[in-house]
Design a protein that fits this description.
The protein has helices spanning about 5-15, 35-40, 55-75, 85-95, 105-115, 115-130, 145-150, 170-175, 185-195, 200, 210-215, 230-235, 240-250, 255-265, 270-280, 305-315, 320, 325-335, 335-360, 410-420, 440-450, 455-460; strands spanning about 20-25, 45-50, 100-105, 135-140, 165, 285, 300, 370-375, 380-390, 395-400, 425-435, 450-455. The protein is an alpha/beta fold. The strands form three sheets. It has a five-stranded parallel beta sheet, with helices on both faces. The protein starts with 5 loop residues before the first helix and ends with a helix.
Length: about 475
Amino acid sequence: MFIGRERELNTLNNLYQSNKFEFAVIYGRRRVGKTALINQFICDKRAIYFMGVESNAKQNLENLSKSIMEFASGLESESSFLSFQAALEYVFKLAEKERIILAIDEYPYVARSSKSLASTLQLLIDRYKDKSKLMLILCGSSMSYMEDHVLAYKAPLYGRRTAQIKLLPFDFEETCSCFKNFSDEDKAIIYGVAGGTPQYLLQMNDKLSIEDNIKNTYLNPMSFLYEEPTNLLKQEVREPAIYMAIITAIATGSSRMSEISSKVGEDTNVCANYIKNLISLGIVQKETPYGEKVSRKAIYSIQDNMFRFWYRFVLDNNSIIARGAADLAYKRIEPQLSDYMGKVFEEICKQYLWKQLLLGRCPVEFNALGRWWGNNPQEKAQAEIDIMGEQDKNTALFAECKWTNEKVELSVLETLVKRSELFHYKTKHYYLFSKSGFTKGCMDKADEMGNVSLVEYKEIIQC
């Protein structure tokens, strides 16, 4: 069953319907669903699909030739084109008569094996773009290769593409649509545990409990997810050991560049380059206090939920997990799950606010959302606001998110209002997000103020 990706499919279908030469680049991290998207798009169309392999040019040319011959004649053929240029030119000429899609999946494998492939494609696109009805799709999992050798200004194919799609993991709403049998609360926890990467979500079974799902995946040495962070980094980067050391440092509380550098034992400039790559992969994120573009307060955290969960819980318990003690490992993890979900719930609330904005239902038309932290001179202590969003110099929203089994009390609203006084906006709107609802005192005060939205988790998941 294919889920989500409506925007991406619409983009591809609009290109297809133009009936002229189109060139789309699809890229994104491994396991994110690029191949599934392509297969869904081409399933009812005249298309040649070819997946590159990590081999030499001869093997890839033979495989491409088979795909082309099977499309053209309907039969497998042992004969092969003499060169990539001959094979691709044949397809360009075929497409002069009819609309054809040529999808080259894992393009970096092919291009690395044949150094002249990009220049060959550039030559053929320039030669045939005005008379061929070919829709060319190049797809790749190596983010750095696709950005540097396909999309970059100095790349031979620069300026030829007519669209590019960076495929991202599912958001919370799309993740929920993957599971019919989980309770509303369990859907949030699964999102926190696996993130929105489709391949990771496929490992989860909504007919089992959260406990059994975690035991069957992360706490099972023979499961796909048990070694996934390590395997993914080995495929994506050249020096996985340093990357793993950096992620471990961040996961264990080193959030500033100087702290990470000290923990890893590398110079800050060296760490900065590695962290930049982890940010481009969507594994790590850089945060500054909301409203501060350049700040010495910048901190780093793990953005991908699967990595966050693995490095928070699996790494520490690796020894007992390897010995098959899943029950003992889960017994250690369970008491910490609610605290772990706090950051996940903040992200879910941000996505809710963005959706409300796009639907025209948000009282503050913010341009961005973020977290704020800094010094509170009145209390002479550090203060934090979970979510802030500014419309202009006069208007902003402030939000607090609570993933607890207790109802949110009036004191939480009062604290948020007090912290908002650190900012000089004339118009302020407050949001309180709660997993379990609000006390009567909190609701009465919100009604009295008139500029407060109280949102229960059940409203988020139903909207």
